[in-house]
Amino acid sequence: MQKTGVLAEEATVWYEIVRNCLLNDILSFWKERTADLEHGGYITSFDREGNCTGKEKNIWLQARQVWMFATIYSNVDKDPAWLNLAKTGRDYLISHAYAGNGRWYYLLDENGNVQQGVISLFTDMFVLMALSAYAAASESMEDENVIRETFDRLDQNIRNEDCRETFPQEYKAGAVSHGRYMICLNSVACAWGYLDGDKADELIRFCMDRIFGVLGHGDDGIIHETRTLQGGYIDSEEGHRINPGHIFESMWFVLEQAERVGRPEYAERALHTISVTYQRSHDEKFGGILHMLSDNGTDEQYKDWNAARHLKWDEKVWWTQAEALCALLTSADRTGDSAAWEEFKTLFLWCREHFFDPDYGEWYAVLNRDGSPRMKLKGGIQKAAFHIPRALYQCSCILKKYVVETGDCDAQT
């Protein structure tokens, strides 16, 4: 059935805007400088002008970029440079970052020496995404065994409440956290074509059940960052924390998979949660999405896990805005809600005005609440070619459906 409404009417123009931002504003910055020609893998630490500020290898970022470059090659732009970039990261992961038995190191120095080992389940999740995307792009099954080893170990560890390798989240006995389930369901969905489909879907359902049955078991549209396994409050700063970026990200993950895995009721809850979270986190005075909130009015007590970065609750952070964009457009697409479409456009234009650097490309990392830049770096401290280009890619895919229906573009471009 052909889609109608304001989104459908404006999709052609916005598809070109978003695609141009993806390829020319963001990815061009990384394409020309991220490959580490001396040591392998990627350089991910850059100042505002794009000068390298460090060559350590955070395996989260290495894996995320493999996924991004492979996905661009597969679905957006058949320039071989993207596949070559994906291979650069894939080769580094396999040769330097694999600890064996389905586990992956967290941090290596520029020479490939392990600085922090198997400390984070999230590393395993991002590598699972990366190797699967590279397999699809390269049409090669050479990593099939390690993909399955990684999934099998992840399946065990996600279900193990006593697994302590949860960095950067602090392990606390009897507590569960939102992050591990939301990232897991997405990573497994990304790797689904290379896994046992029944086992993969079972794990995706398990993660969704934890998100909505434990961390967000009420009807208020709130997903907490941490709860007891029984869904009870934890009286701490983190226990009262509401993380808009995580919620937006989690909910668009859910919307992509809920009906397919037999949890259609979660799709409805996800749509409600996106709306509630936007109303709660959108900064009516200055624009943009606030970084962190609480459920008890103690927003200012938020403590960033990274002391060097020292994010504040009311700042505007690159990845939070990116995930909000993706969630808002996904919601508008699913519901036909013109308000969600207008919210997406408003936030997109605000980010374009305040985050994008017209002189050197890419987005700044962090803005003050009023929209002025606080951290102008383009890469480092968890920022790489991932959240922003992934959101723009996802949004372009949604918009492209409308454009193809009208015959305004080739379905293969």
UniProtKB/TrEMBL annotation:
<protein>
    <submittedName>
        <fullName>N-acylglucosamine 2-epimerase</fullName>
    </submittedName>
</protein>
<keyword id="KW-0413">Isomerase</keyword>
<dbReference type="GO" id="GO:0005975">
    <property type="term" value="P:carbohydrate metabolic process"/>
</dbReference>
<dbReference type="InterPro" id="IPR012341">
    <property type="entry name" value="6hp_glycosidase-like_sf"/>
</dbReference>
<comment type="similarity">
    <text>Belongs to the N-acylglucosamine 2-epimerase family.</text>
</comment>
<dbReference type="InterPro" id="IPR010819">
    <property type="entry name" value="AGE/CE"/>
</dbReference>
<dbReference type="GO" id="GO:0016853">
    <property type="term" value="F:isomerase activity"/>
</dbReference>
<dbReference type="InterPro" id="IPR008928">
    <property type="entry name" value="6-hairpin_glycosidase_sf"/>
</dbReference>
<dbReference type="Pfam" id="PF07221">
    <property type="entry name" value="GlcNAc_2-epim"/>
</dbReference>
